[in-house]
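REVIEWER CHECKLIST
Item 1: Sequence provided? yes
Item 2: Single chain? yes
Item 3: Sequence as submitted:
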Amino acid sequence: MDGNGRWAKKRGLPRTFGHKEGAAVFRKIGDYCRKLGIRYVTFYAFSTENWKRPADEVAALMDLFDSYLDDVERYAGRNTRIVFLGSKAPFRQSIRDKMLKLEENTRHCDGMTLMLAMNYGGRDDIVHAAKQAAELAAGGFIKPEDITEEMLSGMLYTGDAPDVDLVIRPSGEYRLSNFLIWQCAYAEYYFSDVLWPDFKASDLDKALAEYAERNRRFGGV
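Item 4: Structure as written out by the authors:
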């Protein structure tokens, strides 16, 4: 969900105001994905690298996360499973408690799965999975030759979710930025100049329409 800070700067507003607007758009697009019948959707909310941002901006984002997680709870009544990608350890206790509660309360939901990448990095995700496999091997539960792509995939933060079909990158940037790099091995990419706070359902429709025209061969012919 990129471009919040630039959106605010263009309007002479603090970057934090852009993040608030971006959170509102997340709500709308999440609801629209559910309406369309999309089974899995992931939003990149905060990366492992975002901790390097100015302390006041990070603090404001944490406050926003804390309050907005209360709103995310409404998905529990809509048969939507909530999953958080990334380590919860760096977040303050109030945020961790809400994240754990949301995951537990929606674990049974089998409608849409909404994943929020918070303190997430694609390389960290792979290292996290590799450590789990190494611990199993060191404990004698598996042999190194037992490790497969399917096993490692299941140990990623995304767990049993399927690989990514479509990545939408708003704000005019043309890079993956350490987002689901294992899961995006055969993903299609759609880049948009629209800053995230201006992103609308019609922009998602455009991305989906272009995706529908893609020829996905997965290395075949």
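Item 5: Key structural point noted by reviewer: The longest helix spans residues 15-36.
Item 6: Recommendation: ____
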